[in-house]
Design brief:
This protein is α/β, with parallel strands linked by helices. Helices cover 36% and strands 14% of the residues. The chain starts with 15 loop residues before the first helix and ends in a 15-residue tail after the last helix. It binds phosphoric acid mono(formamide)ester (CP).
Length: 317
């Protein structure tokens, strides 16, 4: 198992082999979740601090549960309930967490580069849980894990990412992960939110949503990130739905075996119709379940994959 990193800051810097190592390790941890006793002692004695400066449901709780399942102690800090509201800086907050012997800090922040900023200043391992519109590495890893689990491969698949690409860290991390593993990635959305410049990342950009849906093996939908937009990029959410939304009618254009994905939170009736989100081709909640195994794998590997006896395949904790 080769994974010599202390931090997980981006997918861009991972090799294809490192990505596959995370996916294979996550598969072992998924098996742990089927046991009566769902805990392994891999991180016993370690402390994992979650520092979330932006709202989160899925990422925050699955990282916390992942750390607990690995037998780590956990700390949870959110912007609203911390001394950041009294003017303390991110660096000072993180240094104080480290003074409590945190071995890992899982950071979500609105600023691109915030995770790298801490990695350069702290001894603790830093895990990027989403930094502005830059990257969301574990989301891409769990998305890739889900595709591989469902379709048996990544290489050669046509993956359509549909929605607000411009402001999406999920899109950027998915582009890196999928292209490194040999998928063909197509981006689609309003021209203002899916600009042609993205083609330089080795992907196709189109604004013909119907043609893109017909071709896709996987459709990964993204919500409109109003919180990052400083101006209006399309006239209304109703208009967005009418032109780019995955309505029940447009869903009928897709392949019978298509996977419908969404990182969440979903905006029903805007980028996706409820009957599609809750339909038989949707793996949206399986993505959430797989996020736990992937985040266990990431923490385990960042800890040096230490203690083969403590790895998921070990017979007893
Ligand atoms: N997908 C995702 O990052 O969801 P949360 O914002 O709820 O963590």
């Amino acid at each position: 198992m080769s994974w010599a990193r202390r931090h997980l800051l981006s997918i861009e810097e991972l090799s294809p082999e490192e990505i596959v190592t995370v996916l294979d390790t996550a598969a072992s941890f998924k098996e742990v979740a089927t046991r009566t006793i769902k805990k392994v002692p891999a991180l016993r004695g370690k402390t994992v601090a979650s520092l979330f400066m932006e709202p989160s449901t899925r990422t925050r709780v699955s990282f916390e549960l992942a750390a607990k399942r690995l037998s780590a102690d956990t700390l949870s800090i959110t912007a609203q309930a911390s001394s950041l509201t009294k003017g303390e800086s991110l660096k000072d907050t993180a240094k104080n967490i480290e003074a409590l012997n945190a071995d890992f800090v899982v950071l979500r922040h609105s600023a691109a580069g915030a995770a790298r900023f801490l990695a350069e200043r702290l001894e603790a391992g830093i895990v990027n849980a989403g930094d502005g519109a830059h990257e969301h590495p574990t989301q891409a890893l769990l998305d890739t894990f889900t595709i591989r689990e469902k379709l048996g491969r990544i290489e050669g698949l046509d993956v359509l990412i549909l929605g607000d690409i411009l402001f999406s860290r999920v899109a950027r991390s998915n582009i890196w992960a999928l292209t490194k593993l040999g998928a063909r990635v197509t981006l689609c959305g309003p021209a203002t939110l899916a600009p042609l410049e993205f083609a330089k990342l080795g992907v196709r950009v189109t604004h013909d949503v119907e043609a893109a849906l017909r071709q896709a093996d996987v459709v990964n939908l993204l919500r409109i990130q109003h919180e990052r937009q400083r101006k209006t990029y399309f006239p209304s959410t109703g208009e967005y739905n009418a032109i780019f939304g995955l309505t029940a009618e447009r869903f009928r254009l897709t392949k019978p075996e298509v996977l419908i994905m969404h990182p969440g939170p979903i905006n029903r009736g805007v980028e996706i119709a409820s009957e599609v989100a809750d339909g038989p081709r949707s793996v949206i909640l399986e993505q959430v379940s797989n996020g736990l195994a992937v985040r266990m794998a990431v923490l385990f590997l960042l800890n040096g994959a230490r203690g083969a006896d403590r790895a998921p395949g070990a017979s007893s904790p």
